[in-house]
Amino acid sequence: xxxxxxxxxxxxxxxxxxxxxxQGYHATGINQIIKESGVPKGSFYHYFPEGKxxxxxxxxEAISEGISNKLDEVCTSQDDSVVAMAGMIRHIAQRLxxxxxxxxxxxxxxxxxxxxxxxxxxEACQQxxxxxxxVLAGHLEEDGFTPDDAAELSTTILAGIEGGILxxxxxxxxxPMEQLARQLEETLTRQRNQAREQVT
Amino acid sequence: xxxxxxxxxxxxxxxxxxxxxxQGYHATGINQIIKESGVPKGSFYHYFPEGKxxxxxxxxEAISEGISNKLDEVCTSQDDSVVAMAGMIRHIAQRLxxxxxxxxxxxxxxxxxxxxxxxxxxEACQQxxxxxxxVLAGHLEEDGFTPDDAAELSTTILAGIEGGILxxxxxxxxxPMEQLARQLEETLTRQRNQAREQVT
DNA sequence: GTCTATAATACGATAGAC
DNA sequence: GTCTATCGTATTATAGAC
Lengths: 200, 200
Hints:
By secondary structure, the first copy, chain A, is mainly alpha-helical. Chain A has a single domain, classed as Tetracycline Repressor, domain 2 (Orthogonal Bundle). Helix content of chain A is 78%, strand content 0%. Chain A has 9 helices and no strands. The first copy, chain A, is elongated, with a radius of gyration of 19 Å. At the A-B interface, helix 6, helix 7, helix 8 and helix 9 of A face helix 6, helix 7, helix 8 and helix 9 of B.
């Protein structure tokens, strides 16, 4: 049977994703993943013959797809990409709060843990963040920023968000994310208006 | 003998600090720490009866002291705190590059790994980041920002730096940190000038 | 394809000789 | 105070029955 309502493979992937997000890569063991997903160990290695590392790479790719689509969706539904960004940040803050500050930054911890210690996972993280950066920069361009400014701003914005996630998780508070949203909204709006003036 | 040129205790602390910084908390084992610091296992548990967790807390406290002093020093030596911040960011970028993107964000990874899974270490991280935030906010106030603005800006700046460290480490490039420095310099200078105008 | 039992190894921590 | 040998218990991964 290669198909069910939710395949066992997806069940493993989902559980792993959640655990990597809340605990990090090294603190999450295969035993915990199979226990919480209710899948026997043998099946796990049948679906993921490359073990924990292969699982992590696939989980990151799935996460990447999900959050890039989400970001694109939010930015498209709002004609003002700056307002959309602030909304996105507040949305993450809400998710952080709801989960007891365990979930809300799906890649942050794993990316840092593996940046210089696991080449395959690091590559997956680079692709994931690269994709996010591309989506955001694209929307900023559509919104009046020059390509160079949009690219540089995207980096700064994403860095702010990742750092905000770090602080909100560390202090168990949505405040850092809220302050970030307000600051970005203010700064970016001014910066964009300036950019638009130069064009006309 | 409780005193040498560099006590064994400090040697352990230093090695642990470096390994936690580059690999994270969970990926760093006691065995590796004692091996690289050249201290027998028995001695380790003599000096750190609370084991790995106690060691981490002490390492974070030592790190906190070091980077807060460094930040204070840099901000004091420069009469313009905004320029000082940009210099600080470029200094971190240089250290990241020199160490192959292994060192440069001493707390970032550990803080995320333990945010919701280890209360003692999380508290140590809160204190460390709180101290940094206080130092930075103080200098921004001296530099013309209102207390409220200074506090909120400090959060945003530190978040940007932590996120910048994440991206520079992930992409093995100083570019994210360089872009961040430029953006902050520009944005903060404008914001400060506006704040000063409102006073007069 | 599915699952259990187990291998091989590493972990943090300790006991006890010196 | 200093160090070695070792204890349980984790870990990832596999072998082999069904």
